[in-house]
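In this supplementary section we document a worked example of the pipeline. Step one takes a protein sequence of length 73 as its only input; no multiple sequence alignment statistics are reported here. Step two produces a three-dimensional model, which step three serialises into structure tokens for compact storage. The input and output of this example are shown verbatim.
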Amino acid sequence: MRAVRSGNSVTVQVSDDGRPRHTSGGGFGLRGLAERVSLIGGRIKAGPVTGGGWGVEATFPAAPAHAAVGGTR
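The serialised model returned by step three reads:
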């Protein structure tokens, strides 16, 4: 996993090596993830990665870095 802040956004990248893993089979997968990301004004892309495996990249809007957390300064 990798997370990078750039300006007023944060991009999170997650990938795997393509080996099968046990999954529960529940949930809504990429469609559900895309719906949730878009609800907060973000965007998502997913697909095969170089060297094998699968990757997901989501970019989210973020408050300016100088904004105080939890109140005013």
